[in-house]
Amino acid sequence: MEGARILFLAGALSTHAFVGYALVRGFTDADPRFGALLGLVPDADFLFPAAWGWPFVHRGLTHAPLFVAALVAGAYAIRRDRDLPLAVGLGVGSHVAVDSLSPMGIPWLFPLEASPSLGLPVHGPAATALLWAGAIGILAKLTTDLPSIR
Ligand SMILES: [Zn+2]
What we know:
mainly alpha
């Protein structure tokens, strides 16, 4: 894997993790580190062997809104409170929402493969800076125990 590709993936993954962290920190009482982990869950599909094929491919099953809904329902079934399902929805859902805008898109109509996409460069420098700024804004506005960033 060439250096540029590694840099691109590191930027995209750290952005998804930070956005998940900020959303879970800002809108739930769950551990925000869990939000960072949840923000990475959809890209676990990079670990699927290529031989498995659809839907176990990058931007397949784990990037479907139906997958997010199933995880939220599962979280609610495990712990019937607000914070865990909301954290799962925000962490995993934010990743899928960001990726949905990218040229590759997501399978909105899973199990169908083809879906429309806006084709925005959401992992480009400008969009990445915007996502980080939004996440920092959430942390600054919605958390009360971080006086150093106010
Ligand atoms: Zn992804």
